[in-house]
Amino acid sequence: MKITIIGTGYVGLVTGACLAELGNDVFCLDVDQKKIDLLNNGGIPIHEPGLEEVVARNRAAGRIQFSTDVAASVAHGEVQFIAVGTPPDEDGSADLQYVLAAARNIGKHMTGYKVIVDKSTVPVGTADRVKAALQDEISARGVTATFSVVSNPEFLKEGAAVEDFMRPDRIVIGHDNTAEGEKAAAKMKKLYAPFNRNHERTFWMDVRSAEFTKYAANAMLATRISFMNELANLADQVGADIEAVRHGIGSDPRIGHSFLYAGAGYGGSCFPKDVQALERTARQYSQDLLILRAVEAVNDKQKLVLGQKVIKRFGADLSGKHFAVWGLAFKPNTDDMREAPSRVLLRQLLDAGATVAVYDPVAMAEAKRVLALDLTPEELARVRFAASPMDTLTDAEALVIVTEWKAFRSPDFDKIKTALKQAVIFDGRNLFEPEVMAEAAFEYHGIGRSILTRT
Ligand SMILES: NC(=O)C1=CN([C@@H]2O[C@H](COP(=O)(O)OP(=O)(O)OC[C@H]3O[C@@H](n4cnc5c(N)ncnc54)[C@H](O)[C@@H]3O)[C@@H](O)[C@H]2O)C=CC1
Ligand SMILES: O=C(O)[C@H]1O[C@H](OP(=O)(O)OP(=O)(O)OC[C@H]2O[C@@H](n3ccc(=O)[nH]c3=O)[C@H](O)[C@@H]2O)[C@H](O)[C@@H](O)[C@@H]1O
């Protein structure tokens, strides 16, 4: 099938590459000339395991092309995926300017029938606005051209995006209950047939419910995390181990084990903005989503917990003190720094006067870019970008772990102890066992793991 992807960002690139891998003829459009030039020169703008190989294979086979040519992109695809960003607006609601601009561009150039697929995460009712934008442009040209708008939200996770896309838990497709809507659904069915031949994992629904499903999924996952983080802080107080509690409750199939890890708070480009956007949608209908407001508030507080533990241990004035920080990306296997808890930790340590040495296996370049925006030149001068995890440790009072990269899971504790000024570890992702750390003579501060300091 001939497919156009509008927006060659995270989701657009993965969607385009995976659909090309399945034999479709894919045209990826972006407004960012630099991104398109990079892709046309064999580069990949994001770090995502397996993606480079899929893109390279399909480029060589002539199944994927990258361009900024809007007219050509509209002419190409019988199915046009809108996969542009929906960042938070000033009031937290989803900013739809990119989605609507993409729709208008299609309307300006389309001639025959097109299926327009909203792949971006968009508030309930957006498909109606996309339809109106398309129709405005078509009417302005005085032509007749028909289209259907389908909602097909994306559930992939960064760091496992190719795998998630190729082996989805579910595919949600919202379409109108009209002849045109059924025609669009038939195209989507054909497109997704290779993923699940019997369509046992496809959920067909109306457009508004599909739009809502995406926010409900992210809000539920964020809720689980904030719930566990709040309990972890209480566990610290009462002398319980949140990891034991996690096993204890996760074994109940009604609860399940996933997304129950307490830590330094959730980050990334999606949970923070989608929780906020759903709250704002509710407010438009005079409804207050109390649970989600709490989820957001708990997460904002949780991002401070690691830094507060350091300050509690070493004092509010950290001038003259140096710390090692492992992990900068908002989660492992990505270089994405959007809403990363590490940014909050660095702000706390630098505000208290400390110097830091930081290391991340893949996010160093992105961290340099982002921290140059977050920090003043004086603050940035107190950050050293180290060459390896061990290189961060020299002269550090303590090691602070923010991201649970695999490479940090089995370090040489003897070497760490020798290199650090004091054998103190703050573990924002509960990578290690408190008992093991106690045996190795480390002072260990996890999240919700104070069982050994119980009196
Ligand atoms: N990043 C993720 O893991 C996931 C993101 N989503 C959702 O997918 C959407 C896209 O997210 P990302 O891929 O992370 O965004 P992104 O910011 O990485 O990429 C968006 C791309 O769209 C381009 N763009 C903007 N306006 C355009 C236009 N009119 N025509 C062509 N290109 C245009 C931008 O230049 C950029 O390259 C968002 O709604 C997000 O919530 C959904 C699931 C997972
Ligand atoms: O809409 C989106 O963009 C995507 O948002 C999340 O994916 P992502 O943000 O890539 O990453 P997650 O693995 O969900 O992690 C998000 C944050 O939660 C944190 N987290 C996750 C799980 C957990 O148990 N505890 C926890 O603190 C992670 O460290 C990370 O900071 C969802 O998992 C995807 O299904 C969804 O498609």
TrEMBL record:
Binding, NAD(+): D30, K35, T86, T121, E158, K273, R338
Active site per UniProt: C270
EC nos: 1.1.1.22
GO biological process: polysaccharide biosynthetic process; UDP-glucuronate biosynthetic process
Catalytic EC class: oxidoreductase
Catalytic activity: UDP-alpha-D-glucose + 2 NAD(+) + H2O = UDP-alpha-D-glucuronate + 2 NADH + 3 H(+)
Segments forming domain UDP-glucose/GDP-mannose dehydrogenase C-terminal: 324-434
Pathway(s) annotated for this protein in UniProt: Nucleotide-sugar biosynthesis; UDP-alpha-D-glucuronate biosynthesis; UDP-alpha-D-glucuronate from UDP-alpha-D-glucose: step 1/1
Residues noted as binding substrate in the record, renumbered to the chain: F155, L156, K157, E158, K214, F259, L260, Y261, A262, G263, G267, K331
InterPro entries in the record: 6-PGluconate_DH-like_C_sf (IPR008927), NAD(P)-bd_dom_sf (IPR036291), UDP-Glc/GDP-Man (IPR017476), UDP-Glc/GDP-Man_DH_C (IPR014027), UDP-Glc/GDP-Man_DH_C_sf (IPR036220), UDP-Glc/GDP-Man_DH_dimer (IPR014026), UDP-Glc/GDP-Man_DH_N (IPR001732), UDPglc_DH_bac (IPR028357)
Gene Ontology molecular function: NAD binding; UDP-glucose 6-dehydrogenase activity
Keyword annotations: NAD, Oxidoreductase
Keyword Oxidoreductase: yes
Family stated for the protein in its record: Belongs to the UDP-glucose/GDP-mannose dehydrogenase family.
Record protein name field: UDP-glucose 6-dehydrogenase
Natural source organism: Duganella sacchari
